[in-house]
Design brief:
Rossmann fold, about 500 residues, 3 domains, binds 6-O-phosphono-beta-D-fructofuranose, alpha/beta
């Protein structure tokens, strides 16, 4: 059992004092990997704390767990599966890598066929999926499609019909393909949206609506049963988790919109981060150090949330993506061997886009009673072609917020005083291209894994989402065993 007592007893020095006491602080707490500059110097990590975490990592078996992940061992123990998202980018057990390559080649061939008008002239991709089958592709297309896309993409996830209606209004049914993205091919929201999209095509007189459907799934037999022709099924392995699946055929809309070469660069960027995580010593390892900072705040300071602010419009969907990655992976109450977790699990991830968030939630960050570790993301190369003042102001604001949170300011009027000593880290990307985005997302995946490994959690199951789904199905089937409040709400709303 990892012994947290030393870390818990470590002296607590303010950030301002840490800087004053250590002239080398910046160099010992910054790192450059894959076009990303990581700066943890405004966190309370110190070389001494990192050494203590390294000892703790030894006790938690972090290196063995990491090696087991890449070796394709069954690390998702509760579901009896290996975890193969790194194999999608070429890093993992040889046979999983070979299978992923064959599946990618199939995706590429279908994309080429669509471009050659094998399905008629296509302009629009209607991607239907939810959770990991939507958040990843949405992030990719939004972040990298700013300078133009080869096809218009709409990603519809919510079962609320407004979402689908809004997407359909933009598209010509005769020039659309429907990508049904579902690992299980049973998810209620996705299957209902897919059926309504088919009905839209039928009503518009599209000759063979099923002939316009591409299935992105780890359950090809279910897709065939539902009516998709085998030639238009892009399968991926059962061992690729939903929230880790954007590298598989779930990334199809991104590969369509951005071009297959861009998708390949994304995979290569992720593979570079995989190799960094796999082969670099723990104290110089970006996902590991980031997780050490996370653990310091959740486990030692007992802070229950962390906030991510993207100071770049192109990354505005990143906080949403991270919410699923981090909270669905590590929001657990038991360890991998079924024992109650006797420490806090994952923090609540939240955030938004800067500078907007400064004018909405930063009041609490600067002066509220909750201390929230903040992560700033920014990109050196501007994504816009306007006057350079825009990008200058954007970056200056990101950096100034971190400085202000740390520095604080005294004032005789308490309402105008800033306590300071509020931690933040900064990720500064040289540019936002597919390769860097791939590395960034892989960094977050591995950081999530390290957090789990240090706490003994299985990051790859998600049983917590099942009960609510089952109860919705039971209620739909007229299950009478409902509490009075829920029964009354159903009666009032649905009769
Ligand atoms: O609700 C949980 C979940 O299983 C996620 O883990 C997953 O990403 C999402 O639903 C969608 O599942 P599927 O891809 O099987 O439709």
């Amino acid at each position: 059992m990892p012994d947290w007592s030393k870390i818990e007893a470590a002296p607590r020095t303010t950030l301002n004092d840490l800087f004053a006491a250590d002239a080398d602080r910046l160099s010992s707490l910054t790192l450059d990997v894959s076009g990303i500059h990581f700066d943890w110097s405004k966190t309370h990590l110190t070389p001494e704390l990192i050494a203590m975490f390294e000892t703790l990592a030894g006790e938690a078996g972090l290196v063995a767990k990491r090696d087991a992940l890449f070796a394709g061992e069954v690390v998702n123990v509760t579901e009896g599966r290996a975890v193969e998202h790194t194999a999608q980018r070429g890093e993992g057990a040889a046979e999983s890598v070979d299978l992923a390559r064959a599946q990618h080649a199939r995706m590429r061939a279908l994309i080429d066929a669509i471009e050659a008008e094998a399905l008629g002239p296509i302009q629009h991709v209607l991607h239907i999926g939810i959770g990991g089958s939507a958040l990843g592709p949405d992030l990719l297309v939004d972040a990298l499609g700013h300078d133009g896309v080869r096809y218009d993409v709409a990603i519809v996830s919510n079962v609320d019909g407004i979402a689908l209606e809004t997407a359909l209004e933009q598209f010509d049914p005769h020039a659309t393909i429907i990508a049904v993205a579902s690992k299980t091919f049973t998810t209620t929201e996705t299957m209902l949206n897919a059926e309504s999209a088919l009905a839209w095509m039928t009503e518009a007189g599209v000759e063979d609506p099923y002939g316009r459907v591409i299935a992105l799934t780890a359950s090809p037999e279910k897709a065939v049963e539902w009516g998709v022709d085998e030639t238009r099924i892009l399968p991926f392995s059962e061992s690729v988790g939903g929230r880790y699946s954007l590298w598989s055929s779930i990334g199809f809309p991104a590969a369509m919109a951005l071009g297959y070469e861009a998708f390949e660069e994304l995979l290569e960027g992720a593979a570079e981060m995989d190799r960094h995580f796999r082969f670099t010593e723990l104290t110089k390892n970006a996902p590991v150090l980031a997780a050490f900072a996370d653990l310091y705040y959740t486990q030692v300071r007992r802070l229950s949330t962390r906030a991510v602010f993207a100071y770049d419009e192109r990354l505005r969907l990143l906080p949403d993506y991270l919410q699923q990655l981090e909270m669905e992976s590590n929001g657990k109450g038991v360890t991998a061997d079924g024992q109650p977790l006797d420490r806090p699990s994952a923090p609540i991830t939240w955030g938004g886009a800067g500078t907007d968030a400064q004018h909405a939630v930063f009041q609490l960050l600067h002066q509220g009673t909750h201390v929230v570790p903040v992560e700033f993301l920014a990109v050196i190369e501007a994504g816009d072609a306007l006057d350079e003042q825009h990008h200058r102001q954007l970056l200056l604001n990101a950096f100034a917020q971190g400085a202000a949170l740390m520095k604080g300011r005294g004032h005789e009027d308490a309402a105008r005083a800033y306590p300071g000593d509020r931690p933040s880290s900064t990720l500064l990307l040289n540019t936002l291209d597919p390769r860097t985005l791939g590395a960034l997302v892989a960094f977050y995946e591995h950081r999530t894994f390290v957090n789990a490994a240090m706490l003994g959690i299985n990051a790859f199951d998600q049983f917590g989402v099942e009960l609510g789904k089952e109860m919705a199905k039971a209620a739909d089937a007229g299950d009478q065993d409902l509490d009075p409040s829920t029964a009354a709400l159903i009666e009032r709303a649905l009769g």
